[in-house]
């Protein structure tokens, strides 16, 4: 059974700080990784994808991937109260058409 | 910007009834998916669909469920003989491809299914 693990939180950070969200996955062959944001009662909204080891930046967001450690992270710089949401890590299971999601980390940005 | 749409936004049904949830994927996308999310729980994969066939399905997707692409735009999830535990948010998603790139999934707004 392939798994994606996330700390459920809540992770509380002050406005303007860097929020760091982490995810580990069990499928060593996975090549595609995604971060989504989900507000309460809403659908997951894609933040970014990452496929190669290292960092990928998009605005205030940086995704980091370490395949050897089976670890993906998301950094949010200059956190805003509007960033308060649940952040979902998703992985495409290798050799399949199946995406699995972690339980999500609830982020609270305090004004 | 293209988006996935879903109807209805909320469906209430009696236990034992059949429901059909509808989705219109993004027009140039080739892969379609259904997920469910029980309140307070994680997003769970149900099924993926490509070229008018099921590509992958989870253990949740048993004989009670079926999917169909009845025309060039709609993608449906049918749940036969609904049970109380089918109450959840159902999300449709689509992706352009499934490969090392262009496999980003985009989600619709969801249908909240309530089984009484």
Give structural notes.
The complex is a heterodimer of chains A (111) and B (116). By secondary structure, chain A is mainly beta. Chain A has strands at 4-5, 11-14, 19-25, 32-38, 45-50, 54-58, 61-66, 71-76, 85-92, 99-101, 105-110. In chain A, strands 2, 4, 5, 9, 10 and 11 form a 6-stranded mixed β-sheet that branches. In chain A, strands 1-3-8-7-6 form a 5-stranded antiparallel β-sheet, with no helix packed on it. In chain A, 35% of the residues are buried. The mean pLDDT of chain A is 95. With 116 residues, chain B is mainly β. Chain B is built from no helices and 11 strands. Chain B has strands at 5-7, 10-13, 19-24, 31-37, 44-50, 53-57, 65-68, 75-79, 88-95, 106-107, 111-115. In chain B, strand 4 (31-37) and strand 5 (44-50) form a beta hairpin. The model of chain B has no long low-confidence stretch (mean pLDDT 94). The A-B interface holds A 31-32, 34, 36, 42-46, 49, 51, 88, 90, 92, 96-104 and B 31, 33, 41-45, 48, 50, 55-56, 58, 91, 98, 100-101, 103-110.
